[in-house]
Design brief:
Blueprint lengths: L14 H15 L11 H8 L3 H13 L3 E3 L5 E3 L9 H9 L3 H23 L2 H20 L2 H18 L3 H9 L1 H15 L3 H19 L3 H45 L1
């Protein structure tokens, strides 16, 4: 074989860059979540088995990239705003236009259908334990009728399923929806929870979703979450129709009262 071969020198990666990559992967996989505080520098350096100056250099680079923040008074945190794709003005817009809730339900139908499907296929025993723990928290709030805590627990339950799908883009899309979902689920529950049968059915549907994921049945899991969201949409539409009927009857009552007063 003629000609000389070209050899590239193998450069040893900097320790700080290796640490940086590992922390980035932990953020990407959801092991570190937005707003979470990192362990103290000494402890983190010991966990990685590196020197504190190398760790400090990695953290500084991640702060420069906007992934970590250093707060006054000490402590390094994963950036709060990570993945907050829905800004406050847009959230306010969704809330002012109630018809947008059906677009959001349609979006959840697609996103959470995929999420549940892959969670059933890929969830580890630890993932399943996390989902069950979230469900049990939801059950407690449901039994005690703690409305605000139930909304939070409902969102956490759905997010734990997204994490168990082991798709980083899917997880962060769901995280980006978090505040919007909180408002959306809260709004839904406010409108349809006064009726006990709606409330009971929705909770039973969460249980079916959990069972399908624990059984490792992706088709049943996808169907469970889609049936759940279709039911919520039907319940909201029925509630909307009922509110309209009540408004009409009140208007008629007002008119009758006006007529009697006039006569």
């Amino acid at each position: 074989m003629s000609g000389s071969m070209v050899y590239k020198s193998v450069r040893q990666p900097k320790i700080s860059d290796v640490i940086l990559q590992q922390i980035e992967e932990m953020i990407l996989e959801g092991t570190l979540s937005p707003g979470q505080r990192l362990p103290p520098e000494r402890e983190l350096a010991a966990r990685f088995g590196v020197s504190r100056p190398s760790l400090r250099e990695a953290v500084q680079k991640l702060v420069a990239r906007g992934l970590l923040t250093s707060r006054q008074g000490g402590g390094t945190y994963v950036a709060d705003q990570l993945g907050s794709g829905f800004s406050d003005p847009l959230m306010a817009l969704f809330e002012r236009h109630p018809e947008a809730q059906y677009d959001l339900l349609e979006f959840r139908y697609a996103l959470e259908g995929v999420s549940a499907y892959y969670a059933a296929l890929r969830s580890t025993p630890a993932d399943k334990q996390k989902i069950r723990s979230c469900y049990e928290d939801l059950q407690r709030c449901h039994d005690l009728r703690q409305f605000e805590q139930e909304v939070r627990a409902d969102v956490e339950f759905h997010l734990s399923i997204a994490a168990a799908a082991h798709n980083t883009v899917l997880l962060h899309m769901m995280r980006a929806l978090f505040s919007l979902l909180s408002h959306h689920i809260g709004g839904n529950l406010t409108r349809i929870y006064p009726k006990a049968d709606y409330r009971r059915t929705i909770h039973e549907q969460h249980g079916l979703l959990l069972q399908a994921i624990e059984a490792g049945d992706p088709l049943a899991a996808r169907k469970a979450v889609q049936d759940h969201l279709a039911y919520v949409e039907d319940a909201l539409q029925e509630q909307g129709r009922e509110n309209t009927r009540i408004e009409r009857s009140l208007r008629r009552a007002d008119l009758n009262l006006t007529d009697k007063t006039a006569s």
